[in-house]
Every structure is written in C-alpha cells, then in structure tokens.
Amino acid sequence: MKEYRRAIENIIKSSLFEKGMLTIIYGPRQVGKTTLAKRILKEYKSEKGYFNCELQSVADIFAAGNPESMRDEFGGHKVIVFDEAQTIPDIGRKLKLFIDTYPKTAIIATGSSSFELANKINEPLTGRHYEYFLSPLSTEEMLNEQTKIAVKDDLNTRLIYGNYPAVYNAKNNSVARQKLELLATSYLYRDVLRFGAVLKSEVLMNILKALAHQAGGEVSYNEIAGLVGIDRKTVLNYIGLLEQAFIIFRLTPYTNRKRDEIKKLRKVYFYDNGILNALTNNFTSVGSGRDLGGLWENYMVSERVKFQKNHLLYRQNYYWRKRSGAEVDFIEEYDGKLVPFEFKYNKSGVSKGAAIFTEEYAAQSAAAVRVINKDNFLGFVS
C-alpha cells in the first residue's frame, strides 16, 4: 500500500530526542500509526527497534520489569517504538524506569485507545511526554500527493467513502466499501469492547448506528437510550469510550448565558465519513438526491479538527443555536475571539441565523460568519 507523508511527522521528530521525554502517537486503528513509526525508525537507522506490544513475547519482556533486562531484549537502538502500548499492564511505570535509566534513547509509544494508555501513562510520566494525534488522511495530506484540481474532483468520493488509507488506496468503490464494512463491524471497536463484560457489542453497534443517523445534529442521550433500551448514564459511558477510541467527537454549544440559547445539547461527529456511511449502510452517491447537509458538515468539521491537531492549534470548538432555530454550525475560539463558519455544499449566502449571531456577538467576533462550500473548502481545511 502506498505510504503518505503525514503532517505531524516533522513535529514529532523535532522533539523526539528531548532528554527524558516520551513521545505518544494516538489515533484509531488502521490510520497508519505503525507505518509512520516505522518510517521514523528507518530514518534513524533503527528499523529493528520496532516492537508490537500485542505479541505475547513482547509482553513477557515487559513482565520482567527491570530496565536492564528490557535494554538487553529490546536492544540499544537510537529509537524504539512500542506499538499498541496500551495492552501492556503498568506500561507507564515501566517506561518511566526505562527512560530514567537510558534517557538518550528516544521512545515512541502508539495507542489506539486514550482511555487505557493515558490512564497508564499520565501519573508516572506527568509532564514527561508529548502527545500527538494521527487521524485518517487529511485533505492537506492529499494535497501533498495531488493537485488542487484532482482533490476537488475527488471530493464527492471522499464524502461517501472517507479517508482511511486502505480505503483511499482502494482500486474501486466496491473494494472501498468492502474495506469499510470490515472496519465498521468490529475492528475499530476492539479497544472499546476490551473494557469489560458490561460492554456488549450489540449495544455498542446500536448506539453507533443511532449516532451516525444524527451526525451533524444535536443528539439527545435520552432518545438514544430509548431506542437502544438502556439508561441514559450507560449511553454516556459508551459515548465517552467511543471518543477515547477516536471514533467520534463532540461539540458543546457556545453560550453567553442568554436565556434563549441552547446550553446542554451536544453535537456528535465521526472522524471519518466512510465509517459514518457504513454504519447507516448508505453509500448513495452525491448527486442522486441524497441530503448532503449532515454529510457535508461532518466532513468539514472533522477535516478542520484534523488540521488543528496536525498543526498543534489549541482552539476551542463550538456550535451555536437559539431556541428560535437561529444557528451557526461551527465556531473556533482563540485569543479571546470567535471565528464562526457555516457549511453549505452548494450555497454561498449566509443564513438569517448567522446574521443574528454576527449582530449579537459583533464585539467578540474576529470576522463575520463565513460560508464553506464545495468551491472554497480547500482554504478551510489546508
């Protein structure tokens, strides 16, 4: 499969050899974490420094628990990668001992579950690790390989099949769909289902399907609980775990505590449109009468979030809506200012609701509401 230069690669390498620091690469399964890690190993002539922590032989080395034996087994490489490190018990303490004893060795740990890996690393390595996020391919990364015209021409396919590397490389849409069906059935959720018998795969899939049908819209946890047949608290637990497995993410509403503003409802988005469509079993092409509102919004929000993470842009993301129905799809807040956006696949005109936001928040807005459509989206996501 073709390899792509990932946007965060140079950022990772810039801090890789900072003494006593660990590098963590988070991201869902199958987005290319292993490929990126091996690419970095090759650059530093440390190809044999790759270890898959899901293998029992690697787990047994960690079980010994002392840095000297780990060094003997893992070798004196300049860079060492521990792939899917969340599978190793007490990994944080063991890596701390290793780093303290051999501070000049660069260590990269990858994880497809922040729930497991972050919990195991944060306490023993507080302030001693850098975290990076690897997503499915971003538009910006596609532009490294193709012209702007080619990326625009491919837009409608990406809206339906998404950007997972294996799907992006598929020779035709039929193969792309097969790969997505495989991803969307169980492989992506392996880490979520590892958290205990209380988590049931059937319930998880029903929640995911309900979320997929509401992508880009405000989600009622009570409604999902009723559809699935579980209580609201359990729905929230599942959604939290899906976030930490990098399948979905949520936006909170922006509010200035005005009485007529929505304050509690959340919007849910998928990191990849292909997974969303696989869950709804709808691969209907663009232009065949399909409603593109939620699909376009999910793609634009997820691509913008990728851009933020790839460039370490620390921004707060919101949406805004009033009880009257006036709304703004996406708002970035940074440096005390608000930057609002609307997403319309074909149109360019600002809605009445957006005009209301501009009027009410003129003093805090860095710009008027900008409409992102199929003609100007590249400037928003790259």
From TrEMBL:
Look up the signal peptide feature and give its range.
Answer: none
Superkingdom, natural source: Bacteria
Gene Ontology molecular function, alphabetical:
DNA binding
Going by the UniProt record, its keywords in alphabetical order are: DNA-binding
Looking at the Swiss-Prot or TrEMBL record, what is one Pfam family this protein matches? DUF4143
Record InterPro entries: AAA+_ATPase, AAA_14, DUF4143, P-loop_NTPase, WH_DNA-bd_sf
Q: Does the record carry tRNA processing as a key word?
A: no
Query: Where does the record place the AAA+ ATPase domain?
Result: 19-137
Which PANTHER family is this protein grouped with?
AAA+ ATPASE DOMAIN-CONTAINING PROTEIN (PTHR43566:SF1), CONSERVED PROTEIN (PTHR43566)
Please report the name of this protein according to its UniProt entry. ATPase
Which organism is the protein's source? Termititenax aidoneus
